[in-house]
Specification:
This protein is mainly alpha-helical. Among the domains are: 33-78; 91-136, no CATH class. It contains six helices and no strands. It has helices at residues 31-36, 39-60, 65-78, 91-107, 112-120, 124-136. Helix 2 packs antiparallel against helix 3 (65-78) and helix 5 (112-120) packs across helix 6 (124-136).
């Protein structure tokens, strides 16, 4: 499995007008964007998906069953089971944390940390970590919304 990236300069007659609501030019594909892709996860998920497909195909094509099952087993060995603990909090949780913290920051009566601590009944340390995580996910807390 590989990834090939190349530049293509279309001839003038191949240029197409930009549809309404679309950006006029594509965003740059930078090394930062490529680094943000979790390629190992994409490859592992693809291998598991292909193995499941081969299992299904083996049930339909008895003549090639052994060959298909063997290939599916190889793919499963190449794609180890997912490691680590699944996320405890769903996106809705972080949205709630951001709403509570943002409301407190805007009103100015109580600090965002104290508001999250009180609302969710957690330690101040946990409240701070949650606010930091909500900000890292892009929720504006105490900032002007655009």
């Amino acid at each position: 499995m590989g990834l090939e990236i190349s530049s293509v300069y279309p001839r003038e007659e191949e240029l197409v007008t930009t549809p309404a609501g679309w950006e006029p030019s594509p965003k740059a594909l930078t090394t930062g964007v490529l680094r943000s892709l979790n390629l190992s996860t994409i490859v592992e998920e693809t291998k598991r998906s292909q193995a499941s497909f081969l299992d299904w195909w083996a049930n339909i094509d008895p003549a090639r069953r052994r060959q298909l099952e063997r290939r599916a087993a190889e793919l499963r060995e190449m794609a180890p089971a997912r490691r680590g603990r699944p996320p405890i909090h769903m996106p809705e949780h972080w949205m709630s944390v951001a709403a509570v913290a943002d409301g407190a920051a805007r009103e100015g009566l109580i600090s965002p940390t104290a508001a999250v601590k009180k609302f969710f009944t957690v330690n101040p340390s946990t409240a701070n970590k949650w606010i930091k995580k909500a900000r890292s996910l892009g929720f504006p807390i105490g900032e002007e919304k655009q």
